[in-house]
């Protein structure tokens, strides 16, 4: 090691010792303030979450308020601790502001997601547990974050939808259920009242269909080969396809038990001489 390197190391060592002697108690105090801020922030967050639960506030709003309270306390503790380390807060805040402006211009898409997330949290077009359909996908709302909304479907897939694709778009909210639409054709000489009654009786025994909303059954249209009977019911979203399969089987069994035939497609062809 040369003389210049040795002098540099000595200067750095002396600087470190001087800093520790001068700010040793301040450093200890800053660490204490930060640790207390973290623990107090966590305690206040849990307290806010409990209070929101007692007031029966929506879980999305409850989590938002709890997280905001925790972050505010931790940031306040950091602002108190930094001056104890000899760091001036004012230039730091100015630098953060300038950096935030540049980052904001570079991340407009992300910021639009955050803005849309705040709109969802406060306007509450849906809550956790609702079934929504947007941008060609549907599922049960599991979590609502500032940047995205998390959905889950019957296949236990997690669908992450950026919030900017929810706010301002056409949104379908069917709450806990999803509309199930089915259709079946019966012969023109069939007793349609008997067919509708048989289908209704069978479908009422299927587990998973809504008991609060009545099943709608009626003649949908007069087809080329059959009278088409339409069925509209509300099924649990978490078991939608399973219930749909069971409902189709129930419709077939109901018509078979009532001796009502499901005709094959037919077409009449005339030969003209």
From TrEMBL:
**Cited SUPFAM superfamilies:** Mechanosensitive channel protein MscS (YggB), C-terminal domain, Mechanosensitive channel protein MscS (YggB), transmembrane region, Sm-like ribonucleoproteins
Q: Which InterPro entries match?
A: LSM_dom_sf, MS_channel_1st, MS_channel_C, MSC_TM_helix, MscS_archaea/bacteria_type, MscS_beta-dom_sf, MscS_channel_2nd, MscS_channel_C_sf
List each copy of the Mechanosensitive ion channel MscS domain by range.
Answer: 110-174
State what this protein does.
Mechanosensitive channel that participates in the regulation of osmotic pressure changes within the cell, opening in response to stretch forces in the membrane lipid bilayer, without the need for other proteins. Contributes to normal resistance to hypoosmotic shock. Forms an ion channel of 1.0 nanosiemens conductance with a slight preference for anions.
Q: Which organism's genome codes for this protein?
A: SAR86 cluster bacterium
Can you tell me which family this protein belongs to? Belongs to the MscS (TC 1.A.23) family.
Q: How does it assemble?
A: Homoheptamer.
**Where is the major localization of this protein?**
membrane
Ordered alphabetically, the record's keywords are: Cell inner membrane, Cell membrane, Ion channel, Ion transport, Membrane, Transmembrane, Transmembrane helix, Transport
Q: Give any GO molecular function from the UniProt entry.
A: mechanosensitive monoatomic ion channel activity
- What range(s) does the Mechanosensitive ion channel MscS C-terminal domain occupy? 181-262
Gene Ontology cellular component terms for the protein in this record = plasma membrane
Indicate yes or no for the key word Phosphoprotein.
Answer: no
Location in the cell reads: Cell inner membrane; Cell membrane
Membrane topology type = Multi-pass membrane protein
The membrane-spanning stretches of this chain are 20-44, 64-83, 89-111
Q: What is this protein called?
A: Small-conductance mechanosensitive channel
Q: A Pfam family matched by this chain, by name?
A: MS_channel_1st_1
Residue span(s) of domain Mechanosensitive ion channel transmembrane helices 2/3: 70-108
């Amino acid at each position: 090691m040369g003389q210049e390197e040795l002098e540099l190391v000595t200067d750095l060592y002396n600087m470190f010792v001087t800093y520790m002697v001068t700010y040793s108690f301040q450093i200890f105090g800053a660490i204490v303030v930060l640790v207390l801020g973290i623990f107090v922030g966590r305690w206040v967050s849990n307290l806010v979450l409990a209070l929101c639960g007692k007031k029966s506030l929506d879980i999305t709003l409850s989590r938002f308020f709890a997280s905001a309270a925790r972050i505010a306390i931790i940031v306040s503790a950091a602002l108190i601790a930094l001056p104890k380390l000899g760091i001036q807060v004012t230039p730091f805040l100015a630098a953060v502001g300038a950096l935030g402006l540049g980052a904001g211009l570079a991340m407009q898409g992300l910021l639009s997601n955050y803005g849309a997330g705040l709109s969802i949290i406060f306007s509450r077009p849906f809550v956790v547990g609702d079934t929504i359909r947007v941008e060609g996908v549907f599922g049960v709302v599991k979590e609502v974050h500032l940047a995205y909304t998390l959905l889950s479907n019957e296949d236990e897939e997690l669908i992450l939808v950026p919030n900017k694709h929810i706010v301002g778009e056409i949104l379908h909210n069917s709450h806990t259920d999803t509309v199930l639409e089915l259709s079946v054709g019966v012969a023109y000489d069939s007793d349609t009242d008997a067919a509708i009654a048989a289908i209704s009786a069978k479908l009422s025994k299927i587990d998973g269909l809504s008991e609060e909303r009545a099943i709608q059954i009626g003649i949908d249209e007069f087809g080329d080969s059959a009278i088409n009977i339409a069925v509209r019911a509300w099924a649990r979203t978490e078991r939608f396809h399973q219930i749909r399969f069971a409902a189709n089987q129930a419709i077939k069994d109901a018509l078979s038990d009532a001796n009502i035939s499901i005709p094959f497609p037919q077409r009449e062809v005339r030969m003209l001489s």
